[in-house]
């Protein structure tokens, strides 16, 4: 509890852009989830100093893992850029066909970060769980 609260307090000092839940259409292992979020960080950092705090945990809907992340985008990168970057690093490298439904893409739930809720709200339930991994990329 103390570690989680300390993380949340520290993370509240950042001006996060988004809170994200990320997964794929294929089974995501913990190792591949970490590699994908590190790739996302690298992709977003091409535009400047991106910061990501993430937690990987078992996915309760299907086998494998999914990722929860706080993302600070450099130079005001837009919502669509984050989504496209996730598609690219998670293996969906093709451009969507006209009229194609989003279900053919890897899942991204991206919400504007709400500072009134604070980082404690976003990370408190995800870090310090069994079978989880988390990190801070800057």
**Order of strands side by side in the largest beta sheet?**
4-1-3-2-5
Q: Assign the CATH architecture.
A: 2-Layer Sandwich
> Total helix count?
4
Helices and strands: which structural class?
A: alpha+beta
Q: What is the CATH first-level class name? A: Alpha Beta
**Mean model confidence by pLDDT:** 86
Q: What percent strand?
A: 15-25%
Helical content (DSSP H or I, runs of 4+): 25-40%
User: Any idea of the CATH topology?
Assistant: Alpha-Beta Plaits
- Sum up the overall morphology in one term: globular
Describe the main β-sheet briefly.
5 strands, antiparallel
Radius of gyration: 15 Å
Termini Cα gap: 25 Å
Taken in chain order, the helices and strands follow as: HEHEEHEHE
Low-confidence stretches: none
DSSP, total strands: 5
How would you explain this protein's 3D organization?
The chain is globular, with a radius of gyration of 15 Å. It has helices spanning 2-11, 30-45, 79-89, 118-123; strands at residues 18-22, 51-58, 65-72, 108-112, 133-137. The protein starts with a helix and ends with a strand. Strands 4-1-3-2-5 form a five-stranded antiparallel sheet. 31% of the residues lie in helices and 22% in strands. The longest helix is centred in the first third of the chain and has 16 residues, at 30-45. The protein is built from four helices and five strands, in the order αβαββαβαβ. Helix 2 (30-45) packs across helix 3. A hairpin with a 6-residue loop joins strand 2 (51-58) and strand 3 (65-72). It has 138 residues and is α+β, with helices and mostly antiparallel strands. It has a single domain, classed as Alpha-Beta Plaits (2-Layer Sandwich), CATH 3.30.70.
């Amino acid at each position: 509890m103390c570690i989680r609260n300390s993380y949340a307090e520290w993370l509240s000092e950042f001006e996060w852009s988004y809170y994200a839940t990320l997964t794929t259409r294929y089974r995501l292992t913990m190792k591949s989830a970490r590699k994908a979020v590190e790739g996302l960080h690298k992709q977003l950092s091409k535009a400047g100093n991106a910061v990501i705090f993430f937690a990987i945990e078992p996915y309760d809907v299907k086998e494998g893992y999914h990722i929860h992340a706080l993302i600070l985008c450099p130079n005001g990168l837009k919502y669509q850029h984050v989504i496209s970057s996730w598609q690219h690093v998670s293996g969906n490298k093709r451009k969507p066909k006209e009229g194609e439904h989003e279900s053919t893409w890897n899942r991204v739930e991206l919400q504007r970060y709400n500072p009134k809720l604070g980082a404690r709200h976003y990370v408190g339930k995800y870090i310090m769980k069994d079978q989880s991994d988390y990190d801070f990329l800057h």
